[in-house]
Amino acid sequence: MDKLIDYIHDAVIVTDLNSTIIQWNKGAERQLGYTAEEAVGRPVYFLYPEERKKFSQRDLISTMKMKGVLDFEAIMRKKSGEEIIVHTSLSTVTDAEQNIIGVISYTLDITKQKKAETLQREKERIQRDLDIARSIQQGLLPSEPPHAEGFQIAGWNEAADQTGGDYFDWLELPDGRIVVCIADVSGHGIGPALIVAVCRAYFRAITDIQSTLNSIMSRVNKLICDDLSSGRFIAAAVGILEPAHKLMYLYSAGHAPIFFYDASRNEVCLWGADDPPLGVVSDQALNQPKTVKFETGDILVLVTDGFFEWANKEGERFGTVRIKDAISKRNDLSPREIIMALHKEVKTFSGGTAQMDDLTAVVIKRA
Question: Quick one: 143-366 is in which CATH superfamily?
């Protein structure tokens, strides 16, 4: 039997009724590091961590009498001190008269398998958490457009990961004005998603009927500067639409370019940012917002940089010129249709390359 068990690759250990090792194969030497000379004659308990040494050989034999074979997982300690996870199958050893004279164990090192299973479970847990986070984040976005007499408004978002660093929002004030916001936190993923939620909460908590655009942006910027770590910032464009007067006060903190389709000239204008992004300079004196006068057919298009920075397989970005052209060609569509057309066009241009950044758009059109 000594020679036979040496042909078995995995560890085979035979003990007598007193749990003393009487046979030790080459597989056990490979798996646990001890030679047969070092292991034979010692109680088998020395292979187990201290807290796992209190099992009874008699109890094991009693169980095997009933079941024939006993399978279990355990922790074993190698000669090096490293602990491994093993799957062990025990069966009894009998003499010619069928008297039990010992126990033979077949031990397989399953450490890698168990670690892989643990890692997979952790991945699945993280995925579930991210799915919940995505559901919550998507639930924070407006579910329907605001009511603005004489205007059509639409917003849309698609994160690059389960959660994103972009968002859009609008808030209808009691006096009929509508606050519209689009923002892009640097980076994407769960960290920026948390910042997005905080940013949204600030805007909603601060904005009231007495608010001016400058006071809103100044207070939000101060709060964000106090909260964000160095290197984090938020590019945002915020407007207060006054449907009754057919105008909007529009301010950009690092969000650029802003696209405006002038229907009378059949031309798309590009506007730059008014100031640096939020979270950069705490006590920054803000420039005055733009006054945007809407005529019939005019369209304001706010998109995050995920649109124009999406590159194709040759590394060429979609760019702002193509966005201008797409807006010009589709100026007769509704805001929602314009957004979907832009998305389709940029995806077609990409040629199947992965979406590397979040996509968010808000379109306001005077009907």
Answer: PPM-type phosphatase domain (3.60.40.10)
